[in-house]
Design goal:
It contains 4 helices and 2 strands. The chain is mainly α. It has 2 domains: 53 residues, no CATH class; 72 residues, no CATH class. The mean pLDDT is 84.
């Protein structure tokens, strides 16, 4: 689990639930959080956590996975950042990759390089170049995200 303050009175907690996510609708997720997560929280956070679980507000869940990028072969579509590939959200690396993607694609599709988007062949060539050039940064971010996830998800360590 990872906790961080998002405002003066609010703290967000990210909880990794290994395996298949327990059902929210049946109360399985709440039970898991009470029995597994709550006891490991600092005592000062246990009551606020319990209060949050009792709240009628829906818990926000997000499956995470790793999705490697593939070369874009679809004319008329450009995917950037996490739309193109995903990494574990622990590092927030998707935004770093997205910003890099914007800079890189703007250079590859600049009017001096691609005078007209009607030239589909040239645009698709630049998209292939984009795929390979973005790998150097996105690979580092992906490896970092997976390594940090593995570190935080260490099993059997007390």
């Amino acid at each position: 689990m990872l906790l961080y303050q998002i405002s003066q009175h609010d703290t967000r907690i990210l909880v990794d639930v290994p395996g298949k996510l327990p059902s929210v609708g049946t109360g399985q997720l709440h039970t898991y959080l009470r029995k597994t997560v709550l006891p490991d929280l600092p005592v000062s956070l246990q009551q606020p956590f319990e209060t949050a679980l009792a709240s009628p507000e829906r818990l926000k869940t997000m499956p995470n996975s790793f999705l490697p990028p593939s070369t874009n072969r679809t004319e008329g579509i450009i995917l950037l950042g996490d739309a193109m590939n995903m990494r574990h959200p622990l590092t927030g690396g998707g935004m770093t990759v997205a910003f890099n993607d914007v800079v890189l694609i703007s250079r590859l599709l600049a009017p001096q390089v691609v005078p007209s988007f009607q030239d589909t062949r040239l645009v698709m060539e630049q998209m292939k170049t984009f795929h390979w050039r973005r790998k150097s940064l996105s690979s580092v971010i992906n490896i970092l995200a997976q390594a940090l996830y593995s570190l935080f998800a260490a099993n059997g360590i007390s």
